[in-house]
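Exercise 7b. Backbone tokens:
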């Protein structure tokens, strides 16, 4: 099976793991995924993540999901920019997700960052996903 949108596949894996109340989920590794997971961890949406080498040259990421009083920390997680339709935003048009309670993850010229850091750095770019 060929996966063309690996970010959407990771987000779906996380979403499915939360629905099934799993403690952790696994996904193939990439630098982009690690950067997105770092932001999710900083914002408190996941507990932690760790990259493991399962075979020589093949790595996977183990994501430890976060729950608060038995409820998932992530209520909604969605992919915005897709391979067939890229979504870019200017700094003044950068969306605030759920009045600032959610996080929009943006790919800028200075790397992957949350919408809050992008506003502080005065950077815009491609909107990858939104999490609440």
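Sequence design result:
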């Amino acid at each position: 099976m060929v996966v063309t949108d690996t970010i959407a596949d990771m987000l779906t894996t996380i979403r499915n793991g939360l629905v099934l109340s799993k403690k952790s989920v696994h996904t193939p590794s990439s630098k982009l995924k690690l950067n997105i997971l770092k932001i999710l961890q900083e914002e408190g949406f996941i507990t932690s993540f760790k990259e493991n080498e399962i075979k020589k040259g093949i790595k996977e990421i183990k994501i430890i999901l976060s729950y608060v009083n038995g409820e998932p920390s992530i209520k909604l997680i969605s992919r915005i920019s897709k391979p067939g339709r890229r979504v870019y935003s200017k700094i003044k048009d950068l969306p605030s997700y759920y009045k600032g309670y959610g996080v929009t993850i943006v790919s800028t010229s200075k790397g992957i960052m949350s919408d809050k850091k992008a506003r502080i750095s005065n950077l815009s770019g491609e909107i990858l996903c939104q999490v609440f």
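Instructor comment: Residues 6-19 form the longest helix (14 residues). The CA atoms of residues 109 and 125 lie 7 Å apart.
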